Amino acid sequence: MNHGMFDPKEFIRKSMEEIRVRVREEKAIAACSGGVDSVTATLLAHRAVGGSLSAVFIDDGLRRQGEPEFVAQLLNRIGVRYRCLDAKDSFFKGLRRKEDAEEKRKAFREIFYRKLGQIVREEGARYLVQGTIAADIAETVGGIKTQHNVLEQIGIDPKEYGFELVEPLRHLYKPEVRAVARELALPEEVSGRMPFPGPGLSVRVLGEVTPGKIEVLRKATKIVEEETRDLRAFQSFAVLLSDKATGTKNGERVYGGIMTIRVVESEDAITASVVEVPYRILFNISQRITGEIPAIARCLFDITHKPPATIEFE
Q1: Residue 75: closest CA among 43, 111, 27, 37
Q2: Among residues of the chain, what percentage have pLDDT more than 90?
Q3: pLDDT, tens only, 87-103
């Protein structure tokens, strides 16, 4: 798509009309994680069908610190009815003993849609609205990596989970989604929000995912986001490696985890380049992570573009 030719106002008009024609008098549920894609799709559907729509936030235990509260406040502010489903135990159980990246992504997808199917049935709805965008589809169909929110494009019938899909953003890339979000008057904290993987922190833990590793990574994620907030970056985040390294703290030997920091610039997530982060910021991140998180012994900085790497490690 030619970004310069995109008209967000016209897109909103057409999308709302398509959603109205599709949903009609039926009930719909919007899967809302708090990212710009899912919030934009939710608000589009809400504007189109009003009270026929409600939203659900699935608390999988793999989100940023404070994410359930952030989503609750946001949906209250824009007037969308919602519920939060605590599914942490199901996700950690489903990810147990899985180390391969694709196995983890597919396990997450299966639990994610089973839980959404449960909500759809309980609410007596027919449709599920989700914020799948063109980059999600391209990477999944192209075999680069499975995105958790892609079904029909790879031959999986969503009716197997008990619903029909409504994907108003499926032909857009991130710049167009942000333009639509701003046209809908969503706050900059949403329209300009840094992307976060659908499977959450599970794809930033190399190897098996456990609640303990996620908690360590959640703390590191907060530190990285705080220290890089003034940088121009598409994404900045921490990754917990599966190996350990020897270090020293308080004059004693420790054998602790290794955290890798990644900061990239991108327009559409199809390609990305590493940001030249000032040494002062890298030093602060390292000092804070190793000082505030006892389990971590050292920090690394990833300098690999996409391609050959992907943005996320898994």
Answers
A1: 43
A2: 90
A3: 999 999 999 999 999 99
- In angstroms, the CA 250 to CA 279 distance is 25
In the prediction, which pLDDT does 99 show?
Answer: 95
Residue in the structure block whose two tokens are 């990246």: 101
Residue 2 has pLDDT above 70, yes or no: no
Residue 145's pLDDT is 86
Q: Which two tokens stand for residue 64?
A: 């940023």
Residue-wise pLDDT for 265-284, tens only, equals 999 899 999 999 999 999 99
CA distances, 125 to each of 28, 67, 120, 151, 285 (Å): 5, 26, 5, 19, 46
Q: What are the Cα distances from residue 7, in Å, to 145, 177, 190, 214?
A: 30, 11, 20, 40
User: Which percentage of the chain shows pLDDT scores above 70?
Assistant: 99
Report the candidate in 137, 140, 129 with the shortest Cα–Cα distance to residue 167. 129
